[in-house]
Design brief:
single chain, mainly alpha
Length: 201
């Protein structure tokens, strides 16, 4: 385990979490909420997402090896395909603000919505889960856990200053960045598939 591997893994996790794509969506979906409630909602999304990733990271390899009996190459091919499909879906069919209405929900209802659909599957989806499993197999469990911590600390800072970032950078720039990131995620998926196929044969 070294700092470079941890940072490299964190960058990969941040890429599939796609903060520059999800942040404008979350801001748009919660426009009607006051700043304090929105930040509380964002923190809950991140805490929930973090728990989902860590739990899956700890139990996923067991299911992969002993229940489904698939190896790392199978997971790379399936995970890469998922990354490509999820990115294509986001590029071609971006979610609309009108799909979600949170202004009339009470605090408990907001918390439930911060789990589904905002934490899962919007922020943490199948692509993220397969990516952390691949990282754990390649770089080791401990290194991957540290990478997850680094990635979510970055996300926590980013989401804390969400409104400021949107005001300074602008919605258009965030939208363009999110499209660029999705292309890179597709490239990561293609690379995972090619490496998986090459290693299999």
């Amino acid at each position: 385990m070294d700092i470079y591997s941890i940072l490299l893994g964190a960058v990969a996790i941040i890429a599939v979490l796609n903060p520059f794509g999800n942040l404008p969506q979350f801001i748009s979906m919660t426009d009607e909420l006051d700043k304090q409630m929105r930040q509380g909602l964002f923190r809950n999304i991140l805490y929930t997402s973090f728990i989902i990733v860590i739990v899956f990271l700890l139990v996923g390899p067991f299911f992969m090896r002993y229940l489904f009996r698939v190896d790392l190459n199978d997971l790379k091919i399936a995970g890469g395909l998922l990354l490509i499909l999820v990115s294509l879906k986001s590029l071609l069919f971006p979610p609309s603000k009108n799909d979600h209405h949170y202004e009339n929900l009470n605090k408990q209802e907001l918390l439930s919505h911060s789990v589904v659909p905002m934490a899962f599957p919007m922020l943490v989806g199948p692509g993220t889960l397969s990516t952390v499993i691949v990282l754990s197999e390649e770089k080791g469990m401990l290194s991957t856990i540290f990478s997850v911590f680094v990635a979510f600390i970055f996300m926590l800072v980013l989401f804390h200053f969400a409104a400021t970032i949107e005001r300074v950078v602008g919605k258009l720039v965030l939208h363009v960045l999110s499209r660029i990131v999705l292309v890179f995620i597709m490239a990561m998926g293609s690379q995972m598939i090619l490496v998986g196929i090459k290693s299999s044969f």
